[in-house]
Amino acid sequence: MSSLPAEPSSVPALRVREVRKDFPGTRALDGVSLDVLPGEVHALVGGNGCGKSTLMKILAGVQPADAGSAEIGGAVHDLRHFSAALARRCGLHFVHQQSSVFPDMTVAENLAIGRGYETGPLGAIRWARLRRRVAAVLERFEIAARPDDRVDRLRPATQTMVAIARALQDQEVAHEGVLALDEPTASLPPDEVATVLDALRRCAARGQAIVFISHRLDEVLGVADRITVLRDGRVVATVARDGLDHDGLVELIVGRRVEPLAAAAPAAVREAADAAPALEVAGLAGGAVRGADLTLHAGEVVGVAGLNGSGRSTLLRLLFGEQQAREGSVRAGGRALALARPRDAIDAGFAYVPEDRAVAGLFPELSVAENLSGGFAGDYARHGRLVHRLERADARAAMERFLIRAASPEVAISTLSGGNQQKVVLARWLRRRPHVLLLDEPSHGVDVGARAEIAGLIRAAAEEGTAVLAVSSDFEELVALCDRVLLMREGRIAGEVAGAQLTVERIDHLLHSEAALS
Amino acid sequence: MTPPSASAERARLDERAAVAPPARRPRRPRRPDAAALLHVAEAYALLGLTIALIVLFSVLPATSDTFPTTANLQATLGNQSVLAIVALAALVPLVAQSYDFSVGATMGLASIFAATVLSGGTPLALALALAIGIGLVVGVVNGLLVTRAGVSSVVVTLGTATILQGIVSWKTGGQSIVDGIPTSLTDFGSGNALGLPYAVYVALAVACAVHWLLRHTPYGRYVHALGSNANAARLVGLDVRRLTLSTFVIAGALAGGAGLLQVARSGAGNPQVGPGFTLPAIAAAFLSVAAVKPGRFNVWGAIVAILFLATLNSGLNLAGVDSYVNDFANGIALIAGVALAGAFGRRRAGSA
Questions:
Q1: pTM above 0.80?
Q2: Domains in chain A: how many in total?
Q3: Within-domain flag for A212
Q4: CATH (domain of B179)
Q5: What does the alpha-carbon distance between residue B100 and residue B249 come to, in Å, rounded to a whole number?
Q6: Residue A460's pLDDT band (boundaries 50, 70, 90)?
Q7: Residue A182's domain is classified under what CATH number?
Q8: Which residues does chain A have within 8 Å of residue B221's beta carbon, measured at their own beta carbons?
Q9: Does A5 map to a domain?
Q10: Minimum Cα–Cα distance from A323: chain B residue
């Protein structure tokens, strides 16, 4: 199956050397080196936070490295001063899982956007010439589409192929440059995946160097010639696909021997016979969630771990009425809920801290006190008038109780650090003592000190009787924070770890092994 | 090398510190630091500029005879009172990040209908109710189109403004309605109390009411929250559609009411005046971000902006410059207002 040029003298299409990148508090990449050969599919795998997205961002010229170089086509480039334009000129082409095609434009227009429209003497687009050229490209990549087809009418796999063709269309020689694909199959239905993978193999057979990133190990094993495993910002190994099986790959990713699959943790059953569960979810479906069942009791902190695209964030949005469920039932305290909009969830005692503060959590121009009041400024109204004195006093109390460091309740929230901003968003809800607290990446963009404080605030809320459901891609955070962790896969709750089984390695292992969860 | 007196002084201070109860650290430094000074300068720069203009036109030979007179003061302020209310109408949706370009046309339509029914003998109170009612209807239509049909507020309100002006032309045939306007109304429009036109007091009362609404009620807070981050507003349980709709309804009602005041001031229903109010009103609403409470659209900032523009226009007129210079001034003010709104918004939102 491999068309890898066998001779060891084969000159790498891309030679990455000693890439280092530090983020505040962590080293995302620590001396990463790898070679990508012409005509090979080189898979890059690793758990969440292993550094593969950071590496891709650096190679795409989106983010500067702190050290390291890349050699492409004989020229060596310093990755500290790499740019997107330079990456393009070198022949590094990237296809990202989303936003890679313009759905309401035709195939021809999508391809033309990558390279600019050819125009006639009056500045008009030369449509006929464009169509001919696009038809040739489509033939070359064996894409089942016509130049005038609208992209959103095509099958998902074909759309992905259009994105790939757009990235590669200008190559005169087939084996020029490097094609990097970041989770190209993540949003594809299973039957479409094979089409894309076949196309990749054909590209490679023509001599194209391909970097392939995926969480789906079966795909990786099916398509790759060689596999580089990253863990904690380091290359664990670069191995040939031949001679590697699924368990062996999981072991490399997780970093320890894989236990027999039969030892998957039994669901820990919590006894709370005296009271109805704080939250009961049955068969919930909508968006990426395809039938989730879970039960949450007052006073417990339950984590949700899942890979990208598993539906973990959608689950919270469905539970908060921010996104409409297709089917399924949600009961809180024994009462069935109809969650048509966030207000319904809030009235049922739910609270939600979204993943992205700036986009959905903060009112950046408003003060700390105003942000704390949020939608409940009415609580401070007497005869229709806001009593600012009461609101400020309450805000001061909240700042003290929830460890928010700000000069006064009146300063604009945007002057606070990320950690303090997050504590404000959290405090907005915690001071209302919610029955159910839904957290999406509660310590996203928060420094280490504030992270511990936020964990403390969440635990304290649970001790006062709040049921907490926390989604995080940081498994260490989940292990430290949660009583048990639900494992989410393809829109369903596929398993659970608790007690002695609740370790980062265990979560990592279970999420990466298909059999253990199905 | 320390002189003994100084060390004795320090010793005394130490002693006092030792026995005194631990003093609470002051919340703010006593001496205003550079940032605080800058803040004050920012808040009152436009007002200062207005005062500088007043002084300038008062001493400038070309205007020193006519500008600093009671008559000019009364005329200038009186003429601005209708504009002030229309600007406040534009301000309410603007706080929620929506744009109402129909406020001038709404005022014009209401003034025509009010003048028509008044000349037919309808009592004043009913005419006022009609003017406000027309504004309410326009506001509901604007709001529904923006929130339900999902059309951009700029497009919706430019469209309704055009339609309203069409109704005015159709209704009047381009003729002003001058007959039969009750003298009680025109007397009010031209009368003064304590040296200022009645209309100024009306505008001030409306300004106080809008200020109260926006700053001192939960509703006003929610409108600010919506304007700051619509996503976050929805996630704290606010009904974003209803809030947006309500801002257009309030804008319509204010603009409609201003229509009757316009009839009182001018003694007629003039089919031409309405649309001319829109841009100065929007300019003042935008410029409010640069005065009194920098970084936020606010009522008193809008009033200061109106005074600034009025002083400038009046001075220029009295100096005998051609009227196109006023157009330049108003156009520049609009662009500057929008630019400042953007700059202040970015700074407040992104200074972390």
A1: no
A2: 4
A3: yes
A4: 1.10.3470
A5: 11
A6: very high
A7: 3.40.50.300
A8: 370, 373, 377, 386
A9: no
A10: B235
Confidence of residue B1 (pLDDT cuts 50, 70, 90): very low
Which stretches of chain B sit within 8 Å of chain A by CB? 27, 212, 215-218, 220-222, 224-225, 227-229, 231-239, 295-296, 345, 348-352
* Average pLDDT score over residue span A303-324: 90
Residues A21 and A85 in one domain: yes
The residue among A432, A463, A495 that closes a domain is A432
**Concatenated DSSP letters for A336-363?**
EE--SSHHHHHHTTEEEE-S-IIIII--
| Distance in Å, alpha carbon of A386 to nearest chain B alpha carbon | 5
Of the candidates A366, A375, A386, the beta carbon closest to that of B238 is on A375
Closest CA to A374 of A324, A300, A424: A424
Query: Is residue B24 domain-resident?
Result: no
Q: What does the pLDDT look like over B146-205, one tens digit per residue?
A: 999 989 999 999 999 999 999 999 988 888 888 888 888 988 988 888 889 999 999 999
Instruction: State the count of interchain CB pairs (< 8 A) between A and B.
Output: 96
A413 contacts A364 by C-beta, under 8 angstroms: yes
Separation of alpha carbons B217 and A369, rounded Å: 15
Give the range of the structural domain holding residue A159, as residue numbers without chain letter.
Answer: 105-170
Mean pLDDT of chain A: 84
Facing A366 at nearest CB: one of B225, B351, B352: B225
Is B221 a member of any domain?
yes
Task: Name which of A356, A280, A355, A267 is nearest A319 in CA terms.
Answer: A280
Is residue B334 in a domain? yes
pLDDT at B4 over 60: no
Residue A46, in any domain of the structure: yes
ipTM of this complex: 0.79
* Inter-chain residue contact B27 with A408, CB threshold 8 Å: yes
Are residue A404 and residue A480 in the same domain, yes or no?
Answer: no
- pLDDT (tens digit per residue) in B107-156: 999 999 999 999 888 899 999 999 999 999 999 999 999 999 989 999 99
B221: part of which helix (H) or strand (E)?
helix B218-228
CB nearest B295 (choices: A342, A365, A408): A365
Is A417 in Cβ contact with B221 (below 8 Å)?
A: no
Average pLDDT over residues A415-428: 90
Residue B113 structural domain: 70-317+324-341
Query: B18 lies in a domain?
Result: no
The pLDDT assigned to A160 comes to: 85
Residue A49, domain member (yes or no): yes
Under 8 Å between Cβ of B297 and B226: no
Are residues A327 and A462 part of one domain?
A: yes
- Tell me the Ramachandran region of residue A167: left when phi exceeds 0, alpha when psi lies from -120 to 50, beta otherwise: alpha
Handedness of CA A468, A469, A471, A472 (dihedral sign): positive
Q: Which residues of chain A are at the B interface, by a Cβ-Cβ cutoff of 8 Å? A: 320, 322, 341-343, 346-347, 352, 354, 359-366, 370, 373-378, 380-381, 384-386, 388, 408, 412, 414-418, 421, 428
Number of structural domains found in chain B: 1
Same domain, A441 and A505: yes
